[in-house]
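The records we work with from here on pair a chain with its fold. Taken together, the tokens spell out the fold as the letters spell out the chain. The record below shows the convention in full.
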Amino acid sequence: MDDGFLMEVCVDSVESAVNAERGGAGRIELCAGLVEGGTTPSMGLLQVVKQCVRIPVFVMIRPRGGDFLYSDREVEVMKADIRLAKLHGADGLVFGALTEDGRIDTELCTALLAVCRPLPVTFHRAFDMVHDPLVALETLISLGFERVLTSGCDSSALEGLSLIKRLAEQAKGRIVVVPGGGITERNLQRILEGSTASEFHCSARSARDSGMKFSVRIQQCSSSGHELHAYLDPWGISSATAALGLVSALVWHLGRQVLV
């Protein structure tokens, strides 16, 4: 955006990426597995998204869901994915890694950053699981991360607003603190005013029914064989994409700040 504010939209499909750009997003975070908080997307997805949009595409590097403590083999996968993402046109990378005691894994982050360069790198919401966020912020700055995505170590950016503001004040322009987590049209104004941030992160997702006319209900069982009171409808399940209208509304609210 030309007005000083930027909305980054997290997407996991080509359609979502196109909608994000049409809605006015300034950057895309490309992932798979958004239900798990985002994992590394396929290189096919990256390649097609790059063909369809012109705004920067930052690629998530996360080999699995769950925690952010990685094995040696998982690290090798992350390095390989970084190289491939760069090869297929990524404009930036997004990753995070912690030690078992909840601190930034400086050794691993240093190694991964070296593979990422010269591209800019964001430390993702693994930051919200750290032992001491103020100390962790200084660590990220010293390592050379350009951005850190955070909900203020709370359930949403709105709930963590006071810490987000404190982090932004501590950063003093040395790193971009990007609020993310539960940002909607209804709360963006409060987060904008309370955080002093200029970049924001959202998914702006909206459920959409499948176009399938035939589907099968499969009763789900646990690994022990006991029936669970839930049904899987794998072919008729609703999908969720970044909705053009939701992205547009969020970007409009950001642009409105310049006119006030």
